[in-house]
Design goal:
The chain contains 7 helices and no strands. It is mostly helical and 181 residues long. α5 (114-128) packs antiparallel against α6 (133-143). It starts with a helix and ends with a helix.
């Protein structure tokens, strides 16, 4: 029992993406798939703002967390809630890091004009409301940047991933463990 837990821990931490058990493979595939879809939709102009794509990210994040808990239960039938939470949160973090790196790359290199256009539109709106251009540009310009967008993406997916991990861990522990026995 202890050797299986140590082996799973060592596998997940020392060789996160080359693990023979594939603990991080599924969330990584989901995240890369979401990035590919997001990039395709952005490239053809269907979705230009990340908030419109958020429901897809949230669904895939939940799927990654759920499957990680299911894999943890499959690997060790006696795993406790904390182990299920840890497995789910690890999957959520993998997804969150990939999505945040993609968001940074998208708005820094693939579409570097997105934020300047957005900032200019917000500054124009603020000027119409009676603010000075310098004041509006200072307030808006610091917030709308690829780094801030990626940081907000990472933080939001961490929080949502933690909530999803706890809900899925309880679901696995209380309900699915009884069904799968």
């Amino acid at each position: 029992m202890m050797n299986a837990h140590v082996s799973m821990w060592a596998c997940a931490h020392a060789h996160m993406f080359t693990c023979p058990h594939g603990h991080m493979r599924f969330p990584l595939i989901l995240a890369l798939g979401a990035c590919f879809i997001r990039w395709t939709l952005h490239a053809n102009g269907t979705i230009t703002d990340g908030f419109n794509f958020a429901p897809i990210h949230l669904l895939l994040l939940l799927a990654a967390v759920f499957m990680a808990g299911w894999q943890a239960m499959k690997a060790d039938a006696t795993v406790e809630v904390a182990g299920l939470f840890k497995a789910g949160f690890r999957a959520a973090m993998t997804y969150a890091v990939v999505a945040a790196l993609f968001a940074y790359a998208l708005y820094s290199w693939l579409d570097p004009t997105f934020f300047p256009i957005k900032v200019n539109a917000l500054v124009d709106q603020a000027i119409k409301e009676g603010h000075t251009e310098a004041e509006a540009r200072e307030k808006v310009g610091h917030f709308f940047s690829p780094f801030n967008y990626a940081t907000i993406t990472l933080a939001a997916f961490m929080v949502i991933g933690a909530i999803d991990s706890m809900v899925c861990a309880l679901l696995h522990h209380k309900l699915l463990r009884k069904v799968t026995r």
